[in-house]
């Protein structure tokens, strides 16, 4: 549990009342504000009193006591609530703090985060201590509770034990169970997962599904199991079926699935014009995808596609808050809410000029404000990766009869290997490469051939993966070892080597899976890596997700996992991992 049991202590609430009585002055007065009122579904004029992190009054009155109060004339601005991202994966090279700080500049002041990286990298005590420190950030962060690893991991019960799941569900920063990437196990009779869903429902917490391509019958079954929402609608028909079965539909615009414009067009064709059961999400996009914004960008797309203005804003604010039962804190500008407010120059431009998060200026007149939001990562167990073992030529033996072929950035299929893989280098005349997953503790490895990644990458090493184990790809065994050694020297990361020289690297000093750099730095490094990979023959759109999803068994068809090469459709290990 977090140290502070209630959002505001009794003493603080008494101070809020004292502001209304004139005994204390507000800290900020937003005077003559034209703001979006979602109760009346109108733009209205009011004076907004803020005391520290809370809105204490919205209406016609002005405070009697203005001693030390910052008065802001909002006559020429339009005010909307801070945006809410309900489906953040805050570990795609960036980390929860860097994502939150960056998101705030585009008006997203609340994030509901995946806990996967914390579960797999930290023990429960360290993870919860990090959640406690992140609570001090101006951006509000809530969390999910995962029920499965999204891959086949050794000792899964260590991470997803009943005790761990129960502790996460009971945590007051956790708003939902899921996402349910392991839902086929539920259909097959996994009563422990069903019990966890039951517990989440008992605690009045939501269950998020992950049902790409699900039939109407499957959607109905998952609703009976307890699912409340799904973000995997890829067509207008998908949206219709989810709405019909009672789901909250989360419309996606991400680096892997930039579906929103198409979905809105499909909705228009199908005459779906009710938006109260819809919200937006960016589904943990790669850093560079966020250059143009987060939820603000989705609101802009919706407005351009003809969604009524207020509905477009509601899908990024109040709809999310109502769904997660946090409307009393978030999603609207009203008395008693957390002071998360975006200041717009124009109603049709959702990217804010200024932003208040928890009553603090994080952006003012287009300039980023100092948030004093540094995190003591090592205290919470997120240290540079320290490997006490070396990769040798004996590890790079390849004799498997079939390999893995990339159909797109994230879908992989089996294929029969017909080339000679006995040499130390593969020619660049084809797109087949040596491919390994190695235990970060050096205990096991799995070796095969990867087709379709590139035809020229000489050596790539990455500690960024689904589980934090080491991915190696390349044409040259020597350059693969060189990339591994450099990745080891920098404490984890992604390293690209050509002809014995480091071509590009992204240090990931937080357990080898996240960077402690700013989002802006990560974006630039990621763009350089993408550019190099493209020059070397990578022709898909997101190599970061390729690395992440090589092990992800919620996607078809063949995956490389801790247990070995896994057949997703038949739920079986085809070739086990080898002890080193």
From TrEMBL:
Record's keyword annotation contains Transmembrane: no
Coiled coil ranges: none
The reaction(s) this protein catalyses: adenine + H2O + H(+) = hypoxanthine + NH4(+)
UniProt xrefs under Pfam families: Adenine_deam_C, Amidohydro_1
Superkingdom, taxonomy of origin: Bacteria
GO MF annotation list: adenine deaminase activity
Residues annotated as domain Amidohydrolase-related: 79-362
Gene3D superfamilies for the chain: Metal-dependent hydrolases (3.20.20.140), Urease, subunit C, domain 1 (2.30.40.10)
Keyword ATP-binding: no
EC number: 3.5.4.2
Stretches assigned to the Adenine deaminase C-terminal domain: 410-570
Keywords attached to this entry: Hydrolase
InterPro entries for this protein: Adenine_deam_C, Amidohydro-rel, Metal-dep_hydrolase_composite, Metal_Hydrolase
Family: Belongs to the metallo-dependent hydrolases superfamily. Adenine deaminase family.
Name of the protein this chain belongs to: adenine deaminase
Gene, per the UniProt record: yerA
């Amino acid at each position: 549990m977090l140290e502070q049991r209630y959002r505001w202590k009794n003493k603080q609430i008494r101070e809020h009342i004292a502001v209304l009585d004139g005994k204390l002055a507000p800290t900020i007065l937003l005077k003559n504000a034209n703001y979006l009122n979602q109760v009346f579904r109108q733009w209205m004029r009011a004076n907004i009193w803020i005391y520290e992190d809370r809105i204490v009054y919205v209406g016609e009155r002005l405070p009697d006591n203005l001693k030390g109060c910052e008065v802001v004339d909002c006559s020429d601005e339009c005010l909307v609530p801070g945006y809410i991202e309900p489906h953040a994966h805050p570990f795609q090279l960036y980390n929860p703090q860097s994502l939150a700080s960056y998101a705030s500049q585009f008006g997203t002041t609340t994030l509901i985060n995946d806990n996967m990286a914390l579960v797999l990298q930290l023990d429960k005590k360290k993870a919860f201590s990090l959640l406690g420190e992140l609570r001090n950030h101006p951006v509000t962060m809530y969390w999910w509770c995962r029920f499965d690893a999204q891959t086949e991991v050794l000792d899964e019960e260590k991470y997803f034990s009943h005790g761990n799941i129960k502790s996460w569900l009971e945590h007051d920063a956790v708003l939902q169970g899921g996402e349910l990437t392991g839902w086929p196990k539920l259909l097959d009779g996994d009563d422990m997962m069903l019990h966890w869903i039951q517990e989440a429902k008992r605690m009045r917490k939501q269950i998020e599904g992950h049902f790409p391509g699900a039939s109407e019958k499957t959607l109905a079954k998952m609703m009976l199991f307890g699912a409340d929402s799904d973000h995997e609608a890829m067509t207008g028909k998908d949206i219709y079926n989810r709405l019909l079965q009672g789901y909250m539909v989360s419309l996606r615009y991400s680096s892997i699935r930039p579906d929103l414009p198409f979905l809105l067009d499909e909705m228009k064709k199908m005459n779906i014009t009710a938006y109260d059961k819809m919200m937006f999400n960016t589904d943990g996009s790669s850093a560079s995808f966020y250059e143009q914004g987060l939820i603000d960008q989705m609101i802009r797309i919706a407005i351009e596609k003809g969604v009524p203005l207020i509905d477009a804003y509601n899908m990024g604010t109040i709809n999310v808050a109502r769904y997660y039962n946090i409307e009393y804190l978030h999603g609207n500008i009203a008395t008693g809410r957390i002071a998360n407010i975006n200041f717009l120059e124009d109603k049709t431009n959702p990217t804010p000029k200024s932003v208040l998060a928890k009553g603090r200026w994080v952006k003012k007149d287009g300039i980023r404000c100092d948030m004093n939001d540094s995190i003591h990562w090592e205290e919470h167990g997120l240290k540079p990766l320290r490997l006490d073992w070396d990769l040798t030529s004996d590890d790079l033996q390849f004799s498997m009869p079939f390999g893995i072929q990339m159909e797109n950035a994230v879908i992989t299929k089996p294929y029969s290997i017909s080339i000679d893989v006995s040499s130390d280098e593969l020619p660049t005349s084809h797109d087949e490469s040596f491919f390994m997953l190695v235990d970060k503790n050096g205990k096991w490895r799995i070796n095969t051939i990867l087709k379709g990644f590139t035809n020229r990458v000489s050596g790539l090493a990455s500690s960024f993966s689904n589980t934090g184990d080491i991915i190696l790809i390349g044409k040259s065994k020597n350059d693969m070892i060189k990339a591994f050694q450099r990745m080891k020297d920098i404490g984890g990361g992604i390293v690209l080597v050509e002809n014995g020289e480091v071509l590009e690297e992204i240090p990931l000093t937080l357990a080898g899976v996240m960077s402690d750099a700013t989002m802006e730095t990560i974006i630039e490094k990621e763009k350089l890596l993408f550019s190099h990979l493209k020059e070397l023959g990578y022709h898909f759109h997101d190599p970061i997700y390729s690395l992440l999803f090589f092990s992800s068994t919620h996607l078809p068809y063949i995956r490389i996992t801790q247990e070995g090469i896994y057949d997703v459709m038949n739920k079986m290990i085809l070739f086990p991992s080898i002890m080193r």
